[in-house]
């Protein structure tokens, strides 16, 4: 339908102006999605003042737009469809595409163009090979969508940022298999992944993974307004691999080791540091430096009650010189970790038990008490795995 009336047409005719009816061309859903994908690129250019670029350091969306623009420039059907809309001259840019178009992958290409691969018209007869960076971009973007109800979560991110600014929350490294950090991910937790704050909004039902581990589907919302639906183990692996991956503590969570615990804390035991009262010459000579370091889930006094009968206690009474309460920690892993750090200073001494059998105690170390205190502090802040003990300087040094 013309927007002019017959009288308008007559008047324009007298003025020498030709009037052509407005043409409405029906587009297929696939063409609409190609146009929508191109409009995303146009909006990026309007906001940033430049065309999207490739590169690992770029934002995920920018990397995807760069891949998409390369493809649109190469496909004659797409160019013909989009050229009337290309008021920024994006399709005629002189930049050569950074990814080769040799081998073909229909579904992946159409997904990057915003097109469903269902159907068999000629726009699907395409094949190409993506670079590693582009594959990574496509994989990441496939797991992140716009969070339609982000207004529900935005105040949470604002609160977390405020808490971090004032110090009521802190970030700690997400360390794999360290023993003292819980790797479990639960609903309501915050993490930092790829520079974005990630909030675990929902945790689905527990499922059994092929390797026998338990897993669950998560809804994770990010501070940039996107969200992903991924497996718990996938998020763990991503945090482990990300050098900047961190977990954000709860407000006023306090230290890992404390004299008191909250009702919902899981009391796991105590690190104890002992000195021997043995008269054995070597022990007596190094008494102030020689310490037994262990972890127990029970009462320390009960643990040392029969020390004089136990070769691991050097068949002598001991005194407790330090204890550290711990919560939510795997005791055996933590003890192994501590012994590994101080292994260079392990006492080399063989004694005979009550029955004359040779015993080599493994939990005694020639380490000053102040260094043990420092090690506990590094366990608290999650950096202990970066250190080992140097007997020469009697200090913790960064491991190679």
TrEMBL record:
Segments forming domain Bacteriophage T5 Orf172 DNA-binding:
285-379
Q: What is this protein called?
A: GIY-YIG nuclease family protein
By its UniProt entry, which Pfam families does this protein fall under? MUG113
Q: Which InterPro entries match?
A: Phage_T5_Orf172_DNA-bd
């Amino acid at each position: 339908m013309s927007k002019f009336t017959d009288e308008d047409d007559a008047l324009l005719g007298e003025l020498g102006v030709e009037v052509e009816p407005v043409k409405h061309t029906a587009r297929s859903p696939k063409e609409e999605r190609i146009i929508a994908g191109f409009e995303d690129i146009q909006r990026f250019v309007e906001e940033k003042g430049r065309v999207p670029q490739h590169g690992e350091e770029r934002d995920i969306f920018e990397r995807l737009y760069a891949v998409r623009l390369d493809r649109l420039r190469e496909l004659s059907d797409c160019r013909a469809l989009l050229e009337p809309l290309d008021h920024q001259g994006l399709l005629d840019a002189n930049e050569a595409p950074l990814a080769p178009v040799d081998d073909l992958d229909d579904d992946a290409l159409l997904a990057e163009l915003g097109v469903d691969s269902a159907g068999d018209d000629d726009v699907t007869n395409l094949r190409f090979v993506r670079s590693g960076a582009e594959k990574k971009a496509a994989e990441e973007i496939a797991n992140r969508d716009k969070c339609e109800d982000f207004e529900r979560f935005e105040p949470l991110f604002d609160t977390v940022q405020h808490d971090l600014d004032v110090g009521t929350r802190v970030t700690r490294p997400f360390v794999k298999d360290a023993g003292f950090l819980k790797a479990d991910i639960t609903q309501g937790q915050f993490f930092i992944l790829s520079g974005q704050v990630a909030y675990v909004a929902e945790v689905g039902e527990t499922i059994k993974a092929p390797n026998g581990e338990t897993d669950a589907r998560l809804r994770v919302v990010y501070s940039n307004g996107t969200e992903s639906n991924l497996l718990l183990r996938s998020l763990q692996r991503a945090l482990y691999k990300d050098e900047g991956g961190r977990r954000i503590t709860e407000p006023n969570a306090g230290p890992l080791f404390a004299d008191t615990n909250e009702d919902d804390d899981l009391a796991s035991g105590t690190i104890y540091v002992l000195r021997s009262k043995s008269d054995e010459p070597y022990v007596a000579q190094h008494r102030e430096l020689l310490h037994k370091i262990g972890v127990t889930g029970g009462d320390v006094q009960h643990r040392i009650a029969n020390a004089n009968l136990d070769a691991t206690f050097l068949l002598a009474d001991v005194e407790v010189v330090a204890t550290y309460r711990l919560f939510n920690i795997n005791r055996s892993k933590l003890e192994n970790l501590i012994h590994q750090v101080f292994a260079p200073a392990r006492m080399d001494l063989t004694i005979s038990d009550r029955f004359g059998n040779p015993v080599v105690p493994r939990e005694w170390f020639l380490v000053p008490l102040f260094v043990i205190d420092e090690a506990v502090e590094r366990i608290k802040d999650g950096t202990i795995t970066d250190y080992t003990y140097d007997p020469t300087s009697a200090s913790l040094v960064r491991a190679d």
